[in-house]
């Protein structure tokens, strides 16, 4: 009983509970961005993310939180561009993560975000074909880059990651025109943009797994969101 009365014990319990709740909320927000027409289903991401925290003890929260901004920026813009400061923040936050976590994948995220937005603004009519090409190209590269991680994670976690990836690919292929509207005007969200960001999310998640279990925990809430989207 004395151990439970110590301040350190209660602080650890509160920290663990806070981490679980926040991971769930971040996963829920990501699931809503990646599958905007199924807001009710996105609530499943909360217990999935909390279960991840319970299973592994702790997951990083900041990278997945930053990814919410990236996904929303790429998906929700259909005509009117945001202010320059907003764009600057969206591109600089992943670079900050790269320096903090010493992981180059976040620098890649900034480059891809810049390139995708430039492509969509210049060639809006070919979004669907580009999304399909991006789907196979990024998934193929991510699977190749993440192959050593499956060995370090073990057979079961590797199969789980591959299974989530397959669910997301099938979801992207079957997805129809979203009914949700852009933040900046009353136009529907672009199907091509939504598919591409789903692929970008899956690719980034798989590539971080080259770091083994720590790489998985780096984007734990994003994995929970991807599983929810694929269900």
Q: What features would you describe in this structure?
A:
- With 231 residues, the chain is an all-alpha fold.
- The protein has one domain (2-230).
- It contains 11 helices and no strands.
- The protein is globular.
- The model is unreliable at 1-5 (pLDDT under 50).
The class by helix and strand makeup works out as mainly alpha
Integer average pLDDT:
75
Q: Distance N terminus to C terminus?
A: 43 Å
Give the domain tally.
1
**Count of β-strands:** 0
pLDDT < 50 runs, ≥5 residues: 1-5
Q: What integer value in Å does the Rg equal? A: 18 Å
Helicity, as a percent range: over 70%
List keywords for this structure.
single chain; about 230 residues; about 0% strand; globular
Write the layout of secondary structure elements.
Layout: H1 2-5, H2 7-34, H3 45-56, H4 62-76, H5 84-101, H6 105-122, H7 127-153, H8 155-174, H9 191-208, H10 213-218, H11 220-230
What is the structure about, briefly put?
This protein is mainly alpha-helical.
């Amino acid at each position: 009983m004395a151990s439970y009365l110590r301040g350190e014990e209660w602080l650890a319990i509160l920290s663990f509970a806070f981490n679980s709740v926040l991971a769930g909320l971040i996963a829920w927000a990501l699931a809503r961005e990646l599958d905007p027409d199924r807001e009710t289903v996105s609530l499943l991401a909360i217990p999935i993310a909390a279960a991840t925290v319970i299973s592994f003890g702790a997951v990083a929260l900041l990278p997945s939180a930053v990814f919410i901004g990236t996904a929303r920026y790429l998906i929700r813009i259909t005509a009117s561009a945001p202010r320059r400061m907003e764009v600057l923040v969206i591109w600089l936050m992943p670079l900050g993560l790269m320096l903090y976590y010493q992981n180059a994948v976040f620098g890649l995220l900034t480059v891809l975000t810049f390139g995708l937005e430039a492509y969509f603004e210049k060639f809006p009519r070919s979004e669907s074909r580009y999304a399909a090409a991006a789907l196979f190209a990024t998934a193929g590269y991510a699977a190749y880059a993440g192959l050593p991680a499956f060995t370090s994670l073990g057979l079961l976690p590797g199969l789980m990651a591959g299974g989530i990836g397959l669910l997301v690919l099938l979801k992207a292929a079957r997805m129809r025109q979203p009914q949700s509207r852009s933040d900046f005007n009353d136009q529907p969200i672009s199907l091509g943009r939504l598919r591409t960001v789903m692929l970008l999310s899956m690719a980034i998640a798989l590539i971080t797994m080259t770091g083994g279990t720590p790489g998985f925990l780096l984007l734990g809430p994003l994995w929970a969101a991807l599983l929810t989207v694929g269900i």
